[in-house]
Amino acid sequence: MNTDNIKDTLNELSDDLKDASLSYDMWRELTDANNMDDFKEVLHEHSFFFQTIIHANLVTFIITLYRLFENKNNTINIPNFISEIYESKSLPDSINNRIMKYVDEITDTWKKICILRSNVFGHKSRKLNPESAFVKAEITPDQMEKIISDMQDLLNIIRSEIFNTRDTFNEEYRCSVHDVIKLLKKNR
After folding, report:
1. Measuring CA to CA, which residue among 50, 21, 22 is closest to residue 36?
2. Which distant-in-sequence residues (6+ apart) come within 8 Å of 140 by Cβ?
């Protein structure tokens, strides 16, 4: 795998991860019980709109994370990318070992993402209703946030080692849902 291919693949994976991260941030902010006092009135007034946004962001998060870490040979995904980099001997063993530690961390949570994708969002299970699928997955918002952070770290290790740069993963574009809600309250 040459550096142009590595760079292109890193950019593709990073773009998908940015989408997942922004979707998670919006979903989390709109569903976090700590924010309900700020949002209750506006959420009630525009409930259909916000419920659609909440659902769409959760679906985007789950489907995108699944796609990033699936293990199909004919798609762009993190496991294939890591295998290709490993086979090309683009990184020293010490870095490959660090990467594999992240892969191990990510895999446990990704299996939970798979349960949701395969039973609720990508397909509708005949055996599990959505609530049962969430119970089976046993995934927490903290785990959802950590898998994003771990994937960002993993891609940045590769980017840093090969290109001596890092990706900021949306830090400059983060729009607070709080700011949008405040604007809606103000402009009634």
Report:
1. 50
2. none
The pair of structure tokens assigned to 135 is: 């119970």
Burial string for 90-125 (b: 16+ CB within 10 Å, else e) reads: bbeeebbebbeebbebbeebbebbbbbbebbbeeee
Element (H, E) at 120: none
Instruction: Count CA within 13 A, CB hemisphere, residue 147.
Output: 25
Tokens for 17, please give them: 């991860």
Q: Looking at residue 122, what is its pLDDT?
A: 92
Q: What is the pLDDT of residue 136?
A: 97
Q: DSSP label at 34?
A: G
Q: Name the packing angle between helices 47-69 and 3-31 (round to 10°).
A: 150
Q: How confident is the model at residue 175 (pLDDT cuts 50, 70, 90)?
A: low
| CA gap 113, 181 in Å, rounded | 29
In the chain the beta strands, taken as DSSP E runs, fall at none
Alpha-carbon 72 to chain mean position: 18
Longest dimension (CA), the chain: 59
Which residue is associated with the tokens 């990706």?
A: 167
Closest CA to 153 of 101, 79, 75, 89: 101
Q: Which two tokens stand for residue 87?
A: 């086979």
Distance, in Å, from the CA atom of 140 to the CA atom of 156, rounded to the nearest integer, reads: 24
